[in-house]
Amino acid sequence: MRANCWTGRNSVDVQEVPDPTILNDRDAIVRITSTAICGSDLHLYDGYIPTMEKGDILGHEFMGEVVELGSGVGNLAVGDRVVVPFPIACGACNACVAGLYSVCENTNPNAGMAENLFGHAPAGIFGYSHMLGGYPGGQAEYARVPFADVGPIKIENDGLADETVLFLSDIFPTGYMGAEMCDIKPGDVVAVWGAGPVGQFAIASAYLLGAEKVIAIDRFDYRLAMAAEHSGAQTINYEEVDVPDALLEMTAGRGPDACIDAVGMEAHSDLGPLQVYDRAKQAARLETDRGPALRQAIMSCKNGGTVSVIGVYGGFMDKFPVGSWMNRSITMRTGQCHVQRYTRPLLDRIERGEIDPSFVVTHRLPLDQAPRGYETFKNKEDNCVKVVLSP
Ligand code: NAD
Ligand code: ZN
Ligand code: ZN
Fold this sequence. Notes:
The protein is α/β, with parallel strands linked by helices.
C-alpha cells in the first residue's frame, strides 16, 4: 500500500510499504477514506518529538471502512464506516475505566522510553513516535486499529460526509475538552491562544458550553477571520496590539475567566530577548519547548481562573511563571484528549445540527501530495487552516 512516511527533519515521502495485517484478536484493518494533517504532526515533522525513525508512517486523524476484523471484535462488522480516535485505549485498565483514555496503561509497548522523559508512560498514539508506541499511522491506504472494540465510532448516517465526521478522531474532541476543562459559567470570558484547527474548535466549543465572549489570539488574520466569522469570536492580532493590555481592556481589568493554550511547544512571539532565549536553548537541545503562549496565558488569566492547556508540550520549558500560577490561585488542567469519551456526544451534536466541523477544511489533496500538504500547513501558505488527504 501507499503511506506517508517520516523521512527525517522537515521531510516526508509517500512510499510503498507492506499492507497491515491482523496481529491480535481485537484488531481491525481499516481502508482509509479520509485522513488529515494535525498541528501535532508538525511537531514530529519539525523534529521536536524524539524517537521518530526513518520510514515511520505518520497520521493519527483518520476514518474509513472496516475490511478485516479479529475474532474478538464483536461490535463491528466488515463494511462498517468508522472514525478512529487518535489515542489507542484498552477500555479496561484503571485509566480507561476512569475515562482517561489517553493515559491507558496497556497500549504503549515502549513505556520505558516514555518513562525516561515523563516519569510515567501515556497511552500509545497512532503515528506519533516510538516513545508513544511506535504504531504505524493513518496517512495511508490502510491501518491496523488495535482494541477496535473500544475506540472506533460507527457512522451509520450515510448523509454525513467524511469531512463532517473525520475530526471526531481528534481536533473537535480536543478543542471541546479544552473548553470543558474551563468549567465555563454564564457570563464567562474565555481567551484562546492559537486560531489553528484546534483553536477553532476550542473557540466554537467554548460558545457551545455557554461562554459569553471568546477572544481568539493569533497573528494570522485569515485564521482570526475564520474564528470571527464562523464562531463569533472577538480577535486579537498579537503582532498588532499588546495582548495583556488588550485582554484587560476587554475584561473590565480582571483578565479572562479562563485561558486556553491551543498553540503548544512551537509557539512564536516577538517578545525580543525571551524569544531569542527560547529559540537558542531549543536549538541547542537545552530546552525542548518554547513558552511564550503558555507564559502569557498564565500571566493574563484572572485571579482564581483556569488555564487549560491543549497545545502539545514535549519535555521542558524555561521561565515557567510558577509564582503567578501559585500566588494567584490559578488552576491548570491539561492532557492529550481522551477522545473516546467525546465521540458519541459530539457525533450527537453534529447530528442535531449544532455544529458542522467541516468549516475548518481549506485544502483537499490526494495522499500522494502529502509532502506539499505538510509544507503548506506548516508555513501557513495559501490561507491554509486544515488539510484533508484522500488515499
Ligand atoms: P497549528 O500550527 O495550525 O496552529 C497553531 C496556531 O498557534 C497558529 O495559528 C499560530 O500562528 C498560533 N500561535 C503561535 N504562537 C502563538 C502565540 N505566541 N500566541 C498566539 N498564537 C500563536 O496547529 P493546530 O493543529 O491548531 O494544533 C495546535 C496545538 O494543539 C498543537 O500543539 C498540537 O500539537 C496540539 N494538539 C493537541 C491535542 C491534544 O490532544 N491535546 C490534539 C491535537 C492537537
Ligand atoms: Zn492531532
Ligand atoms: Zn486502558
